[in-house]
Amino acid sequence: MKVAIASGKGGTGKTTVATSLAWLAAADDRTVAYLDCDVEEPNGHLFLKPAFLREEPITRLIPAVDQDRCTHCGLCAQVCRYGAIACVEQQTLIFTELCHGCGGCVLVCPEQAIREEPKPIGRLRVGAAGRVQFVDGVLDVGEAMSPPAIRAVKASVPDVELAVLDCPPGTSCPVIESVRGCDLLILVTEPTPFGLHDLKLAVEMARVLGLRFGVVINRADAGDREVWDYCRRQRISILAEIPDDRAVAEAYSRGEMAAESVPHVAERMRGLLETIQSGAPV
Q1: What would the pLDDT profile of 41-68 be if each residue is shown by its tens digit?
Q2: Could you give the count of Cα atoms lying within 13 Å of 117 in the half-sphere of its Cβ?
Q3: What are the φ and ψ backbone dihedral angles of 8, each rounded to 5 degrees?
Q4: Stated pTM of the model
Q5: Who's near 64: CB < 8 A, 6+ residues apart?
Q6: Ranges of residues in the chain whose predicted pLDDT is under 70
Q7: Three-state secondary-structure class, residue 166
């Protein structure tokens, strides 16, 4: 089972929930993997503290033009929807930062003057944190396209009973790539106006993608009741509520998992894990 942990905004507690679920599942003798899909700023390793067993480069394909064969007909520039190719006089230019690696330019070139070459964009790290199998990706600084790195992380998921995917914040392309194909999406939010606003965006994304989803409310006693009212009106299941507790922030600042350091968080997360494993409707 693949469970994705996401939210409409950053700082809601996705990694707190994701690492706690993985750690508790392993403690209950389940085979579990934690996948950090937030490749632009992965931080799951700070809490699970894995021993990395292997590391390998992550690449994406970009076009390269054989200028001797190219007739500068401009078909490649016409087919590119991202403005990554331009034909200027007797030269065809590639803007790799804009390229999405779709391969359309290769297919349309009548002279077969374009080939695809791998470009390193980051690195994949695979290891283990006790009984939790660990995978994350680290995107190189300056790289704009994170979905290829996220796909590399997801492709490395081991054969386990439960895979927990810690997703990037927001609702843009990296998040959609992360949650695609998951069995359950858990949206972590907080009871604030910003939290509610971005939760609505995340709910719309989940419904457009046709995903089963539910909500976890973090710092549940620190704001207003608008999130509960919204979930009730929209018939969205609230899977767990985590109270606001300074001890959680202190554990986080020390690089400790909340479920390991704060008993009531472990209790709430264990209840969430049981809900997930039972296949309860959401």
Answers
A1: 999 999 999 999 999 999 999 999 999 9
A2: 9
A3: -75, -20
A4: 0.91
A5: 94, 114, 115, 116, 117
A6: 280-282
A7: strand
